[in-house]
Amino acid sequence: MVYIPCFDSSQLEATCKVLADTSNGLRGEEIRHILAEIKVADPDSSLTKWKRLFNALAYVQNKHQVGNHLILFINRAMAPARYISTPELFEWRRDGLNVALTFAGYAVRDDGRVVHTSRETTLSGARARANRLQSLLESRGTHQEVYKYCRSELLEENYFHAVLEAVKGIAERIRQLSGLKTDGAELVNQAFSTRAPILAFNSLRSEIDISEQKGIAHLLIGVLSAIRNPIAHAPKIVWAMPEQDAIDIFSVLSFVHRKLDNAEKR
């Protein structure tokens, strides 16, 4: 491998925090194994994972005055064969690494290899390069109201909290449209009653109209109870939010927002 200049401590720390993230990072045993593969001493396995990895790579970088060992570690950690059954994990790590590495002029390709790229100097520019989730949502024509409630979380590629804020945004928009102050199933049942509706998705003159009103109301209750409630009450480490789940949930929310666009207040 050609000589690679040393990474500064902030770049090295940011990269280690992605690779050894509590929820989506490498397991402790994987870190130990890869360090052994590239012949880097594992200083203290009792440390927090990212600190353990940082200490190992910082020590060898300072000793040899090259940044090659970080690149070697990433190339092995991002080998596509590791992610045959978890492609969403590969994409999460790749996106995070690309934010951290772009300040040093590197990026991780879709084959998991680190390559040279133009150097980024601003955080907004680095995030824009790696903000793949928002690009995916935009390509699907996701409703703008979805972004309204979770824009900062999307910028951080924080699927867990982006979904939580977006689902909470649905309830808030119903409150704004209806004037109600309640929440959850009570809010939905009051707003979209078929006998005395405050909001109606159609004229409610036929069985088909009534079925649509009931169906979307049931969908809303399901979203709030099956998605928002577990996320709101369970820690991120327990209730995982893979990228594909997040995209599918945003699609449902986008559909509901489009229905709300045409809902009539009675």
Strand content: under 5%
Separation of termini? Answer: 70 Å
Output the number of helix runs. 13
Mean pLDDT: 87
Give the tally of β-strands: 4
The protein's oligomeric status is single chain
What can you see in these coordinates?
With 266 residues, the protein is mainly alpha-helical. The radius of gyration is 23 Å and the shape is elongated. β1 and β2 (114-116) form a beta hairpin. The protein is built from 13 helices and 4 strands. α1 (9-19) packs across α3 (49-64) and α11 packs antiparallel against α12 (207-233). Helices cover 61% and strands 4% of the residues. The model has no long low-confidence stretch (mean pLDDT 87). The chain starts with 8 loop residues before the first helix and ends with a strand. It has a two-stranded antiparallel sheet. It has helices spanning 9-19, 28-37, 49-64, 68-77, 87-101, 123-130, 132-139, 144-148, 151-155, 159-178, 184-191, 207-233, 243-261, and strands at 106-108, 114-116, 199-200, 264-265.
